[in-house]
Design goal:
alpha/beta, 7-stranded parallel sheet, Rossmann fold, 8 helices
């Protein structure tokens, strides 16, 4: 068995809400490899959950950050810079859309709802990358964002989030080009349907799970742990030659035509 030792490496994780979060599955893999991690939270409601999860991880930090606030983003990275001194990994697992924009017809999406979904779910990667880059100097840094197949396919009730994920994937490719000369890699993981808090907000999600299980070549649903392991590959030196990629971790579901 290949053992990855990330002692001395550091990472920022955006998007942990609870123990079912894909961001947490990634954090677990990094933590087991001995990376030191910092976790974001937004508001006091989530602070307790995030702090409780992070507590067992040696040297972990938690920081408040509203990704729609440029000053809050700058403060968060400044806090991590002071605590860690440098940064090796960044995980973007942030997404949001209004409930009403995930239920009706896509054509009825409000202007504000469209703007909000793309600002939080896609644009937020840009300031994160901009602020992370100086901390990754000469560190061969790596950034991973979480996306979904609805960026390329029609998924009923995913609506505006499909637009946001498409924008996110383009951002990954563009950032890979721009940050490559600095030795920073940028990739995305397109995870299959997994029972997370955000997924349960999609109408018909249970049917999505069963359909994926029935039609995927592996004949099952993918697990959060598998997403975490794939992120570990992309973030660590194991993925040193990979950038600008969207890696599907969905038991093969994305290759099927029906």
């Amino acid at each position: 068995m290949y053992t990855i030792d990330l002692t001395g490496k550091t990472g920022m994780i955006f998007g942990v809400a609870n123990h079912r979060s894909l961001a947490w599955a990634i954090a677990e893999q990094l933590g087991q490899a001995r990376a030191r991690l910092a976790f974001s939270y937004q508001g006091e409601r989530l602070k307790e959950n995030v702090a409780k999860l992070a507590a067992p991880l040696k040297g972990s930090e938690v920081f408040e950050c509203d990704v729609t606030d440029d000053e809050a983003m700058a403060r968060a990275f400044d806090q991590v810079a002071k605590a860690f001194g440098h940064l090796d990994y960044l995980v973007h697992s942030v997404a949001f859309a209004r409930k009403e924009d995930l239920e009706g017809a896509f054509r009825d999406t409000s202007r504000d709802g469209y703007r909000m979904a793309l600002e939080i779910s896609a644009y937020s990667l840009l300031p994160m990358a901009r602020l992370a880059a100086p901390l990754m100097k000469d560190r061969n840094g790596s950034i991973v964002a979480l996306t979904y197949l609805a960026s390329q396919r029609v998924v009923p009730n995913y609506n505006v989030m499909g637009s946001a994920k498409a924008a996110l994937e383009h951002s990954v490719r563009q950032l890979a080009f721009e940050l490559g000369p600095m030795g920073i890699r940028v990739n995305a993981i397109s995870a299959g349907a997994i029972n997370t808090l955000s997924a349960r907000g999609i109408s018909g999600f249970t049917s999505m799970l069963s359909e994926a299980r029935e039609k995927a070549p592996l004949g099952r649903n993918v697990t959060a742990e598998e997403v975490g392991k794939s992120a570990l590959f992309l973030l660590s030196d194991l993925g040193s030659g990979v950038t600008g990629e969207t890696l599907h971790v969905d038991a093969g579901y994305h290759v099927m035509g029906v």
